[in-house]
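Usage example:
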Amino acid sequence: MIRRSLYTLIAVVMLASLVLTACGGGQGGGENAPIKVGAIFDLTGPTSDVGTPYGEGIKAYVDWLNANGGVNGRQIDLISADYAYKVDQAEQLYTQYVQEGVVAFQGWGTGDTEALRTKIAADKIPFMSASYSANLLDMNAAPYNFLIGTTYSDQGIIAMVWAMQDWKDKGNDGTPKIAFIHHDSPFGQSPIPDMQAFADSKGIEFMTIAMPKATDFVAELAQIQQFGANYVVVHTVSSPAAVLIKDAKSQGMTDSVQFINMNWCADEIFIELAGDAAEGVVGTIPFTPPSSPVSGHEAADKWLKEHGSSLEEKGLHFTQGWWTMAVMTEGIKRTIEAGKDLTGENIKASLEGIQNFETGGVTSPISFSPTSHRGNTALKLYQVQSGKWTAISDFISAP
Amino acid sequence: MQSGIFHTTYRADMALRRTHAEKIRLALFLVFMLVFPFFANRYYLTLANQVGIATIGAIGLNILTGYTGQISLGQGGFMAVGAYTAGLLTARMGMPWYASTLIACLVTAAVGAIFGIPSLRLKGLYLAIATLAAQEIIIWGVTHWDAVTGGVDALVVPDPMLFGLRMNTDFRFYWVIWAIAGIAALATVNLFRTHYGRAFIAIRDQDIAAEVMGVNLFRYKLLAFAVSSFWVGMAGSLTAHYRSIVTWERFTVDVSVLYLAMIIIGGLGSVSGSFFGATFMTLLPAVLTNLGRALKSSFPFVDAIIPFVQQAAFGLVIILFLIFEPEGLRKIWKNIKDYFRLWPFSY
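Running the assembly step on the lines above writes:
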């Protein structure tokens, strides 16, 4: 009978914890009560390699802010948990946090951002995440989603703008041939229509090809070579991108063809995985990597050094999380300063009033308006030089 | 004092609920389900609704895998068929949600039957791989068939309306989901009291013997796929209407594995097992996350390890069940009932 009573004990403890914590919510916010913000991170799921530093960045920003007096004297209470990139768990956590009275929410990937967007519109909860799909800019379908990073469509177009300029600078005539190789998912496909339209308007020969789940991409590279591409825009995550670049290098393609990685495959992880083959690859990176120090890195770096780490170690996704949370905090701060109640609706209105918010050079200045939540339309291009992302352009905007 | 349950008439033996205790428990359960939403907050209602949808899906999978013995890794794909069909019919053609749900179930049943055709020649692991192919093909289809599914975009489904009320609030949709879950449970329990159901079980226990007895394997296997997919499609279309949005990432192969885990942990070949398994697997992450939060203040290190505990717990629970109670939570529940029935003189 020991086994059975043990089962009972475990069941009772678990149920009790569920009841106790979930009943704790719902208290009203006094004048100086902490401001509740909800967040979900991928710490153990398929995107945890980049999700972990992103989540740490958001948490660290809140800790740093609270240690430095909070928002106009009020602390931020960040309620967060891992959801392992599972949509059902994202829904559970979201509803729980809304029940507990969060006024804004930080999501993570395409999966949860898309799945929650109708509910956040109904609940009027301002939402930010690291999914930069241009679909989220539709103000009717996603009125409470705010995009901090440059959308994938804009990144693709900026990559093409740069390629055209680079082509001319190298003394060539006409327009280059550009190939777009992408993750085989809506995440990967999302910029295609906008990039195709841009290519057509400039008379660029353009091809797209999906990356299958494979251990090498030799066949895809052969197709790109047959097409005769001068530039290849890569839109996937770091590990397949590293395999792609290594294959390209071993085929001698990297000498004649310039590869341009979009943000989810242009980070420190890519350089680590691709090694020497990464050298010379260009990246469209909306958040300045720590290898190109700017003033917007200083607070985070100082905070991390006080806690036995450094920004160099945590990488650019930490910066991305830090500044995403900073923009959300700006919306909360403006709402308090305007003397309004901290509701999702008021925070949305405050965020929509943000014009040219400076992030210390980490991103181009962020602006929102009631008709557009496309916060960031410009970015710098970086190139891997001696194993580090080094800026090679000034901010370029998507036309 | 009784030493067990013995029936003295055929009528008693054939009854759906055989004992007084069963009837009382059912009545208590129904009263609880009826009263629960009036006291629950939104978080609990969301959990209850997720459990309800999972129960319907698990009953569907159990018909196929638990009762008929055909392993399926296509659960996520079949749910996607239900969700996209219902979503598209409502969003593009303006069909009322209840009509689109019913049609989506029928479409899923047909798709399930088509992917069930290989089951005539394939068994066990081979069938598992064939259904895994179904999963991959369907997901590839919904993400690439742009003209129909919209491909890249998530499919936004208009709010379901009934008598001028928006139905998909957590409170209102609770009634829809659990009414359908009740119908699914009742229909399935009764299905296995008919010759169709007995044919399914015969196929599971020994297909050659079943064929010798006159069970048309091809027909009944396809029928099992169709009936199973009907309920799986129901789970998918309810998800679409409940969340008002359909995205492919909700129906990945992880979902197929999760549902298999539900019916293994709950109990293969059992309707109540489907409910237990769905409840357990849906609440496990919620319980662990909240346990982590409750312990965080007293043991700060718990916060950092709880995500990993959650991952490990999933695998560990399945292994422990396979070793200690292969018949699942349903058997544990039965053991508890037996223990108290004979208490204090259990033998």
